[in-house]
Amino acid sequence: MLLSDYETRGLLFNVNFRESAGASGFDAYRGELVVREGEIADAQGRRKPPQAVLKQVVLLSDAEKLHLLAGFLDDVADLPELLGMYGADFAEGASVILYARNLGKPVQAQVGGARLIVIPLIEGMVWNELLDELILEKGDFKGQSAGEKVMTANNALAGYKPKYETVEATAIPALAVEVRYEARGAV
Question: By the number of CB atoms within 10 A of the CB, which of 133, 136, 153, 182 ranks highest?
Fold first, then answer.
């Protein structure tokens, strides 16, 4: 299984869950995915914490390919590294929906046979934003396990056609903007 390979290589980080997605041969995962590994820390080959991760990951895979990958990037400049690490694992027709803190406008692109959609998001939860984007409601998931919910979201992507500008994937990091944070809390 592809997720077992990722786990062996130490690419699954802060695992929320990993379980069957209800359909035979499909696994769902939520947690974080390593984008840039940490340095080797000792003679046994153990690594320091990753230097960059894709946060709040929602992933669906079969034994060999990724069919859905959604997550949050702190910096859109990490996109080429993410695609370099996992792009070969995308199934034909896969959906990759990423939210990036410092992206100026939502765009879409093709990466091999996969559809890549990158959307600006200063703060929020990837799962909630994904469900809003796909127009799914709480009732759509009634009685489903966590893995089955990921499969339901993936099935909803079949009819999802965003009207975002289409660009080359290599041009997306150049759309970065400076993000200013608002101070919150007690005054």
Answer: 153
